[in-house]
Recover the amino acids of this structure.
């Protein structure tokens, strides 16, 4: 809340559109004789607007290809929208997602330091945090091996540990909670619940798990073919989504 007791927004997304350019399949030999390959534009996110209050927990659901991960990556600053605005109100933000932010040729330890510095933490701050991150990730001697040697489960453990231990104002979670062994899933859920108990921390969770979103979120956004189909109370939105998907 602000000084007047009014609820503040941590995230404001207004009229966001995100397009991908797709090159038609064409051989190298043929491309040498064409001045410009024909491009197609795929509209991944179409005129999306919503806000999340400070301390809010928003779930995002939708079938594969609906634009969920694309939207989350844009909020994280991985890339900019083609049009529209994303305002994080000066908050720090981190993204938990497989394949994002890690340099394959660097070790896990080196990636921890790099990831933290990219989020705005100093090298000293990262050195103070690094052992906590390593202990939470539980990937053993792999911490000093190149990330390219990691399994998807190791990726998810390290990604979660970095974000959970650094505790940014806004946490964006893209399916990472559903990856890994059962014990780590329980540990991750427990840590996530601990983090979101802080009323100032804002969380966005992309997931296909209806039960997870019901348990964790106070609002759910349903994306369908790049557009918002519904946003509101979790039980209602998720119930409508489930009916739609099981027709």
């Amino acid at each position: 809340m602000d000084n007047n007791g009014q609820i503040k927004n941590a995230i404001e997304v207004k009229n966001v559109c995100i397009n991908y350019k797709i090159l038609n399949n064409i051989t190298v030999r043929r491309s040498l004789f064409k001045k410009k390959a024909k491009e197609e534009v795929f509209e991944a996110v179409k005129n999306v607007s919503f806000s999340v209050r400070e301390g809010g927990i928003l779930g995002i659901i939708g079938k594969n290809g609906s634009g969920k991960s694309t939207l989350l990556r844009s909020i994280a600053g991985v890339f900019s929208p083609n049009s529209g605005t994303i305002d994080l109100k000066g908050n720090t933000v981190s993204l938990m997602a497989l394949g994002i932010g890690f340099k394959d040729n660097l070790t896990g330890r080196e990636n921890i330091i790099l990831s933290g510095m990219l989020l705005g933490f100093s090298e000293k701050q990262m050195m103070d945090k690094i052992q906590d991150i390593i202990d939470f990730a539980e990937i053993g001697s792999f911490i000093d091996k190149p990330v390219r040697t990691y399994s998807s489960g190791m990726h998810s453990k390290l990604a979660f540990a970095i974000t959970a231990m650094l505790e940014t104002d806004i946490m964006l979670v893209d399916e990472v909670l559903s990856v890994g062994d059962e014990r780590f899933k329980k540990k991750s859920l427990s840590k996530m619940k601990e983090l979101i108990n802080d009323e100032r921390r804002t969380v966005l969770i992309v997931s296909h798990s209806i039960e997870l979103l019901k348990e964790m979120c106070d609002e759910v956004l349903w994306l369908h073919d790049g557009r918002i189909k519904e946003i509101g109370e979790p039980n209602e939105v998720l119930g409508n989504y489930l009916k739609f998907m099981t027709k």
